[in-house]
Amino acid sequence: MKVELFAQSGEKKGTIDLNKEIFEVPFNKDLVHQALVYQLANARKVVAHTKSRGEVRGGGAKPFKQKGTGRARQGSTRNVHMRGGCVTFGPQNTRNFTKQMPKKQRRKALFCALSEKARDGEILALEKYEGEAKTKPFLELLAKLPIKRDTLVVLPGRDKTVELSAKNLQNAKTIHVNYLNIKDLQKFDTVLFLQSALEKLEEVFLHHTPVKTEE
């Protein structure tokens, strides 16, 4: 699999080969969907919360005497059937939505999504980006590239020049290669890798550095 390599000026420099283990994986729709659900569920913030009888303020005094009123006996004005009372079986902010998914499956799902992008011609490579951290020249560069609508710019690590240049753009987002995820790959039409980020991608997801042990 080859992708087009562009210079900072926007001119085409040629093509570069992509790693087969990452960019030539058969697409598994179910696995990618499972990884997306896993990511969204674990990022979910539990906000909805209804108060139980012990949490509702007031209701300490008995509304009326036990007998002689001709009404049903009541012990509190905060019962579930009373106005201003508690809620039974309502949503609680203690609910846990987190899911589990093996690391190998999450990684394969990421490779599936990247491979699909590569097959659709939605992955580009940029030789390097240097200069001042300004939005205008970076926007002009993106306009010269064959980008469909919006782009995800993948960096090998911290790069203030690119990050600050793309910060104010609505149709672009920067992300470190370590944090590549299914949600962003599904959201953005084009993925623009810095050439060094492609090398870092292989280092992070394929090459495992052995842990040194003390003898």
Task: Give an overview of the whole structure.
The protein is of the alpha/beta class and 215 residues long. The protein folds into 2 domains: 2-29 and 101-205, 3-Layer(aba) Sandwich (Ribosomal Protein L4, Chain: A), CATH 3.40.1370; 45-96, no CATH class. 32% of the residues lie in helices and 14% in strands. The chain has 7 helices and 6 strands, in the order ββαααβαβαβαβα. It has helices at residues 20-23, 29-42, 103-119, 135-144, 160-166, 182-187, 195-205, and strands at 2-6, 12-17, 123-126, 151-155, 172-176, 190-194. The protein has a 6-stranded mixed beta sheet with strand order 2-1-3-6-4-5. Strand 1 (2-6) and strand 2 form a beta hairpin. The longest helix is centred in the middle third of the chain and has 17 residues, at 103-119. Mean pLDDT is 89; it is low at 209-215.
